[in-house]
Amino acid sequence: MDVTIYHNPACGTSRNTLEMIRNAGIEPVVIEYLTTPPGRAELVRMIADAGLTVRQAIREKGTPYAELGLDNLELADDDLLDAMLKDPILINRPFVVTPMGTRLARPSERVLEILPETHRGPFVKEDGEQVLDAEGKRIV
Fold first, then answer.
1. What is the total count of domains within the chain?
2. What angle do CA 108, 87, 2 make, to 5 degrees?
3. What CATH number is associated with residue 76?
4. DSSP-derived secondary structure letter, 38
5. Containing structural domain, residue 89
6. Residues 40-86: pLDDT tens digits?
7. Which residues are catalytic?
């Protein structure tokens, strides 16, 4: 299965998402989006395919969001996209693209919605939260 993750290795949510993909027996294409951001068309497609608005896909925490005035609700999607492409830290992460769909994996277990049920046993997130049981089934 072809899977791509737009990853930030400094982000715990992104690291957990990557490891859940690997726990499903899939080695994804890992794109460190801060150094290799998606192009405009790819970013627009990922946001739409994930069922999000551009504003929902922008990251506020730990970014220049407020300093750039991006909290101005009168800004058009094109203005927000321009800011995200100029400064990729504004792109929320991790986006994951699979043949089963696209998700902004926040929380990280959202990635399970677009992966086959081929998990190799349990999965525990970095914070100790168990997501999959010993049989690889989601704990709800």
1. 1
2. 40
3. 3.40.30.10
4. P
5. 4-132
6. 999 999 999 999 999 999 999 999 999 999 999 999 999 999 999 99
7. 11
